[in-house]
Design a protein that fits this description.
mainly beta, Tachylectin-2, Chain A, Jelly Rolls, 2 domains, 44 strands, 1% helix, 47% strand, globular
Length: 519
């Protein structure tokens, strides 16, 4: 039997863009962007760079991050995680909020400090600690083709600015030079940043110097990109961060997308891993249009392990590759839309489940709607629950939802329509909205509901006994929940949603919450 593959790409599937990583002793810690979702900046831990578990969030208090009035795809952009002299540092941008800031903590799990604001830069600030203890902020500045990288020195203990910002790099003069990181490797300073916008022209550039402020020698070509491989299953590579493991092997974490049929990416930008090779000239190499960054299995050296197909073996009868049941509270994998109001989410142990009290906000609103969610991690999945809910107001509803943003979402649940309890399935696709109601459900009691996705789109079904299912009658194309059509920087989150335009909803009790990857 072959050895078990060391890791699977993407190493963190689903909407987890702009990864940044640090090693502390034998442990690795990684963070990603979170935009309008709260708490902000999910944190992951690993002992091998291959297997990651969520351990919390950095920004967990309104005093740190208030997203209640933030538009879709605003909020927290690319963040950088660093460790120095016994403390963790997370530096980021709160877009259309307080701007650039950093927080610190003694442990990656927190608690993290209140924000220390910084006056310079546009988005994507990074932090570098030199061998002499001096600390530099390296940040994107400008917009579009005018983007460039600036740098200045701070006192990390309190954020005191110790030098005025100077322009240190303009990259390849492509649009949106962003996500910069400065390192000292093999005695030289390396400056890397993404260019081309975070889509199909995305690429990672690098330059080097003998001084932290340059002048920087450009490599002259990207060291990570798939922009020349339009048919490749993994696209948009960039926003890379470099890390050295305890054996001295260098790696990179970076975002990538897996567009369906080369067009639609409902999962958004995901976190990938690949080994870094150093050339004889002293430059790092990952994948420059060679197609080696793939989704699939890889050994500890980053070499792809081919799938093993045994002949004369019948395919498995089980449709579900894997499933996860949620019944004991909101763990670190959960997020909320713009805010967390504890009184609207109450878990119980007997029977195990969670009760939601919906608000007047819906998923159409750029507002803190009641929506507790997980990242969709597979192109083919189902999200199901047993829902006990008795709405009494016209227009009141509760159920399951898949959300890209306020312009693209899909819902199935129980609603009150014209004096009756009905099954409601509805969607939004840009300016287009559609809903289907079905009165063929019991007037009271619990109902099984599920929302499912495949490479074609999203649909829903319901059941009285959890065995015999009926289709809800509404399906939407995958494009409706894809950023390529309805914009933004996020991927689909699936979760629990309740709303009532007239005020609060009746309590909606969810049990048997299950997320499953399906074949």
């Amino acid at each position: 039997m072959p050895k078990r593959p060391a890791y699977t790409n993407p190493v963190i599937p689903g909407f987890h863009p702009d990864p940044s990583v640090v090693r502390v002793g034998e442990s690795f810690y990684l963070i990603t962007s979170s935009f309008e979702y709260f708490p902000g900046v999910p944190v992951f831990q690993s002992h091998d760079l291959f297997n990651w578990k969520p351990i919390g969030h950095v920004l967990t208090r309104r005093e740190q991050l208030d997203l209640r009035h933030r538009a879709s795809s605003s909020g927290i952009y690319a963040s950088t995680l660093r460790y120095h002299d016994g403390r963790f540092y997370m530096i980021t941008t709160d877009v259309r909020g307080i701007g650039n800031f950093y927080v610190t903590a003694e442990a990656a799990e927190g608690p993290w400090s209140d924000p220390i604001r910084l006056p310079y830069g546009n988005i994507d600030p990074s932090l570098f600690f030199d061998d002499d203890g001096r600390a530099y902020v390296t940040s994107q500045n400008g917009e579009g083709y005018e983007s460039h990288i600036i740098q200045y020195e701070i006192d990390p203990s309190d954020g005191t600015i110790l030098s005025e910002p100077v322009v240190i790099w303009r990259g390849d003069e492509g649009p949106w030079l962003e996500g910069p990181h400065l390192y000292k490797i093999h005695g030289r300073y390396y400056l890397t940043a993404a260019s081309g916008g975070t889509s199909f022209e995305h690429r990672q550039l690098i330059a080097r110097s003998d001084h932290p402020y340059g002048p920087f020698e450009d490599r002259g070509e990207p060291f990570l990109t798939h922009r020349g491989l339009k048919e490749h299953p993994v696209q948009c590579l960039g926003h890379a961060d470099l890390i050295e493991d305890i054996q001295g092997q260098w790696w990179a974490v970076f975002l990538g997308m897996r567009p369906i049929d080369g067009q639609y990416s409902p999962l958004g930008r995901e976190t990938f891993l690949a080994p870094v090779r150093w050339t004889a000239e002293g430059w790092p190499d990952i994948d420059v249009n060679t197609g080696t960054v793939m989704e699939g299995f890889f050994d500890a050296q980053g070499r792809e392990v081919p799938s093993i197909v045994e002949e004369n073996v019948s395919p498995p009868q089980q449709d579900h590759v894997s499933s996860t049941v949620y019944e004991s509270g909101f763990g670190p994998e959960w997020s909320f839309l713009r805010d967390y109001e504890a009184a609207r989410y109450q878990w119980s142990e007997q029977p195990p489940g969670v009760t939601l009290i919906g608000s007047r906000y819906s998923l159409d609103d750029e507002a803190p709607a009641v929506f507790a969610c997980l990242r969709q991690q597979h192109q083919q999945m189902q999200w199901s629950a047993l829902l006990d809910y008795q709405p009494v107001s016209e227009g009141e509803y509760a159920g399951l939802a898949a959300r890209l943003n306020h312009r693209g979402h899909f819902f199935v649940g129980i609603a009150h329509r014209k004096g009756h309890r009905v099954l409601l399935t509805q969607m939004r696709n840009g300016e287009q909205t559609e809903q289907v109601t079905c009165a063929d459900i019991p007037a009271e009691g619990s109902l099984y509901i599920k929302l499912f996705a495949d490479r074609e789109g999203y649909g829903a079904a319901y059941s009285v006994d959890g065995i015999h299912w009926s289709d809800s009658g509404l399906h939407v194309p995958v494009s409706a929940l894809s950023p390529e059509v309805n914009g933004g920087f996020t991927g689909v989150c699936i979760g629990l949603h309740a709303s009532n335009a007239q005020g609060d909803t009746q309590p909606a009790f969810y049990s048997c919450l299950t997320y499953a990857c399906i074949r």
